[in-house]
């Protein structure tokens, strides 16, 4: 239906419905409410017509102004609007047929090992394995190495947690700086000594305080191979709860720092302490140019199975890859831990005797009761034989005669005496072993790359017919257990407040990066010294590093000491405040009509956020905007790459409010009550809600003022199980019939609730079907055994018990023009379910908000369970790092806690007819313990330590916000054979809903009234990017010298894999999929300053690591040749993004899509020529 042409029809429909209500005086109240909802919907359609006309008028005004101001303005001011195509509509998402085929294709190259099959086949028993308790007895024949000696690389290392039992700074002060200082001295004493390091957060902090002589010494050690940097991220991140945005960002920060200061690029990944491992991390390392990686914390039964099959070394391939382009070689450590007692061989009692830091009189001792002995001429032979026996047994678990033996532990090599006792005693052992031909061993100190180089050589030598010795493995390694039934699924939820704060920080950092880059280009063009000399880039760098620090596997996981958690939170909070300044000041410069007037404003913040958080451990509250007859500007920023229609809600001082577009058109507004407490309505604040239409990556300006000429509508309230103290403005009715069903609805859905305010049914209006979808809360306790739940472990006392309340909770039902919602107030949860009256993405899902407070609970964990009639049986799906979907099987042979998995952004269940998705704005633990159910653990308070080193429980709970969306979709054209595949994809609607949830708009109000004119909007893109392409970041690169910005930026795009077999009507987005093609015409990016070709790079922004297929001279089509009219194919997973940008951008990160790896590599090519 054409909305503009059908106003008359809408008015007739409204009159008809009113006539039905008048005649239906005898109908009960529920029918009247539903009819009123329909009237409201029709009136909203009229309002949208007015908004369309308003936006057309804005565009005409902006176009006319640009003509008057001339070409200069059109290039620099972005005053031209994006036009009416960004407005909501009933249109469908248009998916290219080839994009639809991707999710359903199959291939002939299957992995040798699929982890889903392993979990199904392995018995998960725990027999006593002898000296290797969790393994088996290992034997060998003495002559096995006659033809080829055993080659052993002993790799000294020190694992330094950037915060755990101490803060980052305290660890550095007390331990880490001395490790580095001693390393420089002790490695120089003997060129055969080696050392390895991972965490750049510590390395950079030390680098800042050392002199030039020491820096030169470090560079020399790196050059001669004695010292190696592995992975090179800011931290060694958690791989379960971290989002891929943050994983990439901390990798970039570490690698860019290394490139700038020491000129090295790490070659291998090293992850010895994260609690389980994700293929997303393997994929990012592969895209970063790595060829090898190492992992350690894997379920002990899986390790035993892999050891028996000799698959501890393998090529890790992504589930979606039907070829082999995502393969990365992976070494899995076989034993319990990465400490010295568990790395030389299967018997920790013997291996501990070769940790010479534990010599009698030292700070450490061997818990097995046998101390190490210093190596002397008298005992060197017997000790060498004892150690070689362990090496040989360990080597029997692998397929070559090359052996890796890590030598280190947490914060090792801190004291110079440790360097001496380890290297000197091992030196004597090595010298003796290498001098004994009958030992058939070649042993030396080495780095991780030394080992992998030797291994590659052995693979090349021993492989037959070009076939590698090593198998291919696909899947993930969650959930981790280190012994018995001790599953580390508790940390998926521990300290959920900070998991929420992490995602808020991510959305702010991304928004600030993008806006800052646009503003920087404008400031450079117009020579705005005030902006160019501002500390904004320093703020961005600090925020990147604080966010990166929080990805550490004892930070975002919630597994650090209380005061360390406060330190992490304070860092995030401080950066959050600085990012708000960057966003506000960048936005202000971009919407100023005359850029030069920016210099005249003295305030350090021009626009301030509508939300204000007062401390690192508190939830944000909305500022109250004081209204008067003088209009105030409201600027709304859309950080997404798609034009967006969404609802904005702000708090104002008066209920008589008018909201105007830039052209002066009055917008329809819902005025709602602000609740000071559960049953008290504020006398001084009111919430106003209205729909905004914002261009991709753009800003739009609105005016708000106190006026009696507003197009505002008061929300209406129905109260259940109690009364409220009203301010006399709103209609608040007490429910007459307590047994009457509670319903709310919008154009897509009707929801039914019970008297406690919990959802019990959903009606989809598209087909009129009723779905029994219920929502409940429940409690988990902890076992009465000796080992109980703690920060890491989830050890419940059985199935969850229903959340019981003594009296029905107070329930409020809100019905308004922009949204309707049901809120209920339990002792531990304030629960809200909302439907938006928007013809677009947000109208098609159910928003669920839970404010959780279990600060007075004792050894309890609170969960939200969604139950449905979907016949999902024992299968469900969770995302990995917000990047890909991993199928899961709930297994009865495993304990309850083993069936809990990490959820970063979504989880879903499905049958042949429907899919039910829970989308999340924060990382939490999730399960599906019964068919048709999704259960998410929202918070946990545990009084004791779980004996994993932390030494405390989790008692520092905060009032925590959890935000979700529930999306029910109809499935079509289902192929049951495809359901067996180990890969699944969200729908396009689900992807976009997740983007809306995780990247909300930023409403900002002026701190003072500007004396200069503002543009009506800032629209950097001429149109939205394709629906399946997400702009991950637009990151200004640091200058080669100093700490400031450069003229380079990294543009990172993600092409998302999606399942087409879902209806996608009424999304409100006029975008389509294009097989990954993004327009590179200068008109597509309206920041026209000067054009320069873009250079493709790896995901970590190194240009010289790009495959030859990306070079200009590649003959594989489609190549990019024209600097003005050209397209670049975003081939899933490998792809560089776009070619010529109107501003200087010479670094370009590879696209990170759920890839199309089996397609021809030529489809990832882009122009790389340089001009001038």
UniProtKB/TrEMBL annotation:
Keywords: Disulfide bond, Glycoprotein, Glycosidase, Golgi apparatus, Hydrolase, Membrane, Metal-binding, Signal-anchor, Transmembrane, Transmembrane helix, Zinc
Disordered as annotated region, ranges: 66-90
Pathway per the UniProt entry: Protein modification; protein glycosylation
Catalytic activity: N(4)-{beta-D-GlcNAc-(1->2)-alpha-D-Man-(1->3)-[alpha-D-Man-(1->3)-[alpha-D-Man-(1->6)]-alpha-D-Man-(1->6)]-beta-D-Man-(1->4)-beta-D-GlcNAc-(1->4)-beta-D-GlcNAc}-L-asparaginyl-[protein] + 2 H2O = 2 alpha-D-mannopyranose + an N(4)-{beta-D-GlcNAc-(1->2)-alpha-D-Man-(1->3)-[alpha-D-Man-(1->6)]-beta-D-Man-(1->4)-beta-D-GlcNAc-(1->4)-beta-D-GlcNAc}-L-asparaginyl-[protein]
Single Gene Ontology BP annotation: vacuole organization
One Gene Ontology MF term: hydrolase activity, hydrolyzing N-glycosyl compounds
Enzyme Commission number, as recorded: 3.2.1.-
Signal sequence range: none
Keyword Metal-binding listed: yes
Topology of the protein relative to the lipid bilayer: Single-pass type II membrane protein
Cofactor(s) of this protein: Zn(2+)
Any one Gene Ontology cellular component term annotated for this protein: cis-Golgi network
First-level EC class: hydrolase
Subcellular localization: Golgi apparatus membrane
InterPro entries to which the protein is assigned, alphabetical: Gal_mutarotase_sf_dom, Glyco_hydro/deAcase_b/a-brl, Glyco_hydro_38_C, Glyco_hydro_38_cen, Glyco_hydro_38_cen_sf, Glyco_hydro_38_N, Glyco_hydro_38_N_sf, Glyco_hydro_57/38_cen_sf
Residues passing through the membrane, by range: none
Coiled coil: none
Residues of the Glycoside hydrolase family 38 central domain: 486-572
Matches recorded under PANTHER family: ALPHA-MANNOSIDASE (PTHR11607), ALPHA-MANNOSIDASE 2 (PTHR11607:SF69)
Family statement: Belongs to the glycosyl hydrolase 38 family.
Function of the molecule: Catalyzes the first committed step in the biosynthesis of complex N-glycans. It controls conversion of high mannose to complex N-glycans; the final hydrolytic step in the N-glycan maturation pathway.
Full protein name: Alpha-mannosidase
Organism annotation: Oryctolagus cuniculus
Origin organism lineage: Eukaryota, Metazoa, Chordata, Craniata, Vertebrata
């Amino acid at each position: 239906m054409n909305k503009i042409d059908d106003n008359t029809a809408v008015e007739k429909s409204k009159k008809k419905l009113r006539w039905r209500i008048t005649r239906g005086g005898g109908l009960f109240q529920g029918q009247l409410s539903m009819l009123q909802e329909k009237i409201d919907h029709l009136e909203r359609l009229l309002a949208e017509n007015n908004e369309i006309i308003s936006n057309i008028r804005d565009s005409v005004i902006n176009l006319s102004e640009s003509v008057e101001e001339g070409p200069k303005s059109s290039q620099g001011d972005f005053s031209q609007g994006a036009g009416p195509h960004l407005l909501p509509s009933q249109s469908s998402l248009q998916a290219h047929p080839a994009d639809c085929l991707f999710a359903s294709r199959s291939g002939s190259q299957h992995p040798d090992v699929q982890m889903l099959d392993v979990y199904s086949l392995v018995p998960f028993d725990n027999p006593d394995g002898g000296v290797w308790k969790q393994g088996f007895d290992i034997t060998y024949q003495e002559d096995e190495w006659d033809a080829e000696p055993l080659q052993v690389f002993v790799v000294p290392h020190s694992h330094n947690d950037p915060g755990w039992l101490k803060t980052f700074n305290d660890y550095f002060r007390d331990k880490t700086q001395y490790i580095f200082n001693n390393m420089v001295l002790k490695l120089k004493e003997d060129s055969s000594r080696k050392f390895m390091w991972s965490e750049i957060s510590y390395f950079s902090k030390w680098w800042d305080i050392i002199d030039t002589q020491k820096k030169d010494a470090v560079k020399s050690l790196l050059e001669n191979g004695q010292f190696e940097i592995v992975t090179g991220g800011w931290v060694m991140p958690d791989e379960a709860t971290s989002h891929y945005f943050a994983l990439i960002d901390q990798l970039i920060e570490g690698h860019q720092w290394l490139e700038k200061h020491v000129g090295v690029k790490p070659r291998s990944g090293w992850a010895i302490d994260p609690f389980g491992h994700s293929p997303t991390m393997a994929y990012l390392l592969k895209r970063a140019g790595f060829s090898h990686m190492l992992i350690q914390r894997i379920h002990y039964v899986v390790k035993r199975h892999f050891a028996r099959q000799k698959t501890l070394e393998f090529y890790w391939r992504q589930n979606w890859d039907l070829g082999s382009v995502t393969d990365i070689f992976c070494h899995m450590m076989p034993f319990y831990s990465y400490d010295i007692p568990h790395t030389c061989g299967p018997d920790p009692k013997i291996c501990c005797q070769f940790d010479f830091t534990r010599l009698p009189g030292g700070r450490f001792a061997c818990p097995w009761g046998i101390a190490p002995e210093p190596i002397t001429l008298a005992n060197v032979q017997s000790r060498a034989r004892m150690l070689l026996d362990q090496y040989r047994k360990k080597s029997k678990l692998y397929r070559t005669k090359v052996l890796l033996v890590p030598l280190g532990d947490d914060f090792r090599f801190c004291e110079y005496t440790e360097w001496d006792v380890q290297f000197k005693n091992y030196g004597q052992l090595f010298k003796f072993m290498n001098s004994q031909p009958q030992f058939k061993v070649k042993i030396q100190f080495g780095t991780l790359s030394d080992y992998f180089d030797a291994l590659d050589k052995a693979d090349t030598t021993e492989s037959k017919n070009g076939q590698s010795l090593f198998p291919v493995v696909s899947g993930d390694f969650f959930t981790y257990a280190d012994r018995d039934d001790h599953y580390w699924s508790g940390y998926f939820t521990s300290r959920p407040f900070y998991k929420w704060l992490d995602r808020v920080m991510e959305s702010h950092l991304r928004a600030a990066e993008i806006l800052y880059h646009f503003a920087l280009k404008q400031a450079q063009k117009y020579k705005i010294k005030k902006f160019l000399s501002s500390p904004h880039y320093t703020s961005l760098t600090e925020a990147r590093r604080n966010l990166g620090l929080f990805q550490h596997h004892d930070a975002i996981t919630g597994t650090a000491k209380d005061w360390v958690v406060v330190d992490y939170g304070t860092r995030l909070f401080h950066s959050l405040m600085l990012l708000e300044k960057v966003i506000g000041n960048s936005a202000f410069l971009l919407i100023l009509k005359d850029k030069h007037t920016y210099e005249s404003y003295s305030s350090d913040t021009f626009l301030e956020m509508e939300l204000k958080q007062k401390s690192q451990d508190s939830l944000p509250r909305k500022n109250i905007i004081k209204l008067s007859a003088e209009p105030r500007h409201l600027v709304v920023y859309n950080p997404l790459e798609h034009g967006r229609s969404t609802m904005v809600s702000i708090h104002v001082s008066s209920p008589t409010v008018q909201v105007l577009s830039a052209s002066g058109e009055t917008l329809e507004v819902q005025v709602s009550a602000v609740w000071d407490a559960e049953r008290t309505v504020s006398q001084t604040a009111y919430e106003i809600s209205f729909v905004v239409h914002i261009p991709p990556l753009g800003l739009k300006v609105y005016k708000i003022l106190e006026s009696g000429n507003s197009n505002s509508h008061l929300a209406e309230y129905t109260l259940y199980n109690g009364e409220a103290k009203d301010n006399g403005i709103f209609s608040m009715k007490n429910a007459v019939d307590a047994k009457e069903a509670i319903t709310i609805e919008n154009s897509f859905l009707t929801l039914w609730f019970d008297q406690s305010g919990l959802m019990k049914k959903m009606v989809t209006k598209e087909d009129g079907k009723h779905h029994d979808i219920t929502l409940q809360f429940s409690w988990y306790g902890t076992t009465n055994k000796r080992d109980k739940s703690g920060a890491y472990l989830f050890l419940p006392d059985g199935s969850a018990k229903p959340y019981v309340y003594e009296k029905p909770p107070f329930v409020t039902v809100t019905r308004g023009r922009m949204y309707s919602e049901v809120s209920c107030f339990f002792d531990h949860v304030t629960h809200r379910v909302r439907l938006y009256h928007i013809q677009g993405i947000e109208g098609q899902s159910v928003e669920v908000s839970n404010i959780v407070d279990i600060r007075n609970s004792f050894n309890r964990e609170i969960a939200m369970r969604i139950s449905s009639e979907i016949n999902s049986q024992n299968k469900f799906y969770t995302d990995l790092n917000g990047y890909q979907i991993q199928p899961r099987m709930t297994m009865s042979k495993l304990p309850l806690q083993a069936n809990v998995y990490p959820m970063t952004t979504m989880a879903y269940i499905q049958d042949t007819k429907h899919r039910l998705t829970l989308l999340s704005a924060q990382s939490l633990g999730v399960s599906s313990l019964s068919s048709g159910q999704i259960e998410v653990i929202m918070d946990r308070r545990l009084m004791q330590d779980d004996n994993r080193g932390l030494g405390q429980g989790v008692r520092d709970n905060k009032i925590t916000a959890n935000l979700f969306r529930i999306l029910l979709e109809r499935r079509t054209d289902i192929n049951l054979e495809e359901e067996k595949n180990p890969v699944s994809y969200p729908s396009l609607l689900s992807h976009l809903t997740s983007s809306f949830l995780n990247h909300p708009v930023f409403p900002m109000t002026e701190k003072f009234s500007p004396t200069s004119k503002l543009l009506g909007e800032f629209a950097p893109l001429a149109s939205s990017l394709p629906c399946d392409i997400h702009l991950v970041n637009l990151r200004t690169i640091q200058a080669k010298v100093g700490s400031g910005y450069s003229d380079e930026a990294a543009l990172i795009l993600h092409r998302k894999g999606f399942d087409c077999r879902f209806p996608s009507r009424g999304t409100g987005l006029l975008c389509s999929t294009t097989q990954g093609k993004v327009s590179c015409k200068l008109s597509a990016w309206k920041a026209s300053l000067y054009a320069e070709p873009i250079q493709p790079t790896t995901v970590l922004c190194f240009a010289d690591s790009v495959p030859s297929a990306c070079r200009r001279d590649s003959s594989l089509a489609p190549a990019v040749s024209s600097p003005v009219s050209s397209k670049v194919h975003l081939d899933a997973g490998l792809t560089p993004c776009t070619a010529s940008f109107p501003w200087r951008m010479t670094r370009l990160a590879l696209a990170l899509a759920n890839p199309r790896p089996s397609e021809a590599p030529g489809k990832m090519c882009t122009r790389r020529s340089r001009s001038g």
